[in-house]
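Ticket #4471: structure export looks truncated?
Reporter: QA, pipeline team
Priority: medium

Steps to reproduce: submit the single chain below to the structure queue and open the exported record.
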Amino acid sequence: MNARIAPGELNYPGIGFTSEGRSPEGFDRSQTRVHLGEGYDTYRRVADGILDWQIQRRSGLRVRTETWSVESGARIVSGFGIGPFRIKAPCEVVWVRRPAPGNTPQSAGFGYGTLPGHPERGEEAFEVGIDAAGAVTFTITAFSRHSNWFYAAGGFVARAAQRLITSRYIDSARQLAAGES
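Actual output as written to the record:
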C-alpha cells in the first residue's frame, strides 16, 4: 500500500478485542446476531461478500478502500450524510478470518478499528458463521465511545445513526445470503 487514504494510527485500547467478543473497560459494547439461512452455499456467499467490502457498499455508505478485498492493515473511509453534512469514518482492518476448506462449522469475517477523524473510538466486526446443523448466522460486534465532546453532545443522534447503519449492514448480509446482485 503506497498512499494511505486516511492518516494517523488506531486510537483506542483493546485492538483486536472484537475477534474474541471482548471490549475494553469504559467502552459501550453491542452485539447483533441474525439468522440468514441454511447451508454452505449461503455461508460462502456471505463470507465472500463480507471479505469484498460488500456489507459496507450495499449499506448505502459512500466507501473508499485501499484494497479490492479485505486485508489486515487495509484502510477504508466510509461516509454518510448529504453534501457538506457528510461525516467521514476512517478505519483500519485489525483482523481477518477467511473461510476454511471443507464443510465444517466455522466463521469468516473481519474487524476494523477507528482512526483519527472518525466520530467514535473503537472497533466493529462483521462475521458470518455456520454451525454443525448448517445454520448460517451474521454477527456484528462492536465497542465504542464518542471521539470528542461534539459527538458526545449529540449522543442520541449518534446512537440512532449507529442503529440505522447496523440495520443496513444486516440488510446487506440478507441480500448476500439470498444471492442478490
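Status: closed, not a bug. The export was complete when the record was re-opened. Leaving a note from the reviewer for reference: The domain at 28-178 is CATH 3.30.530.20 (Alpha-D-Glucose-1,6-Bisphosphate; Chain A, domain 4).
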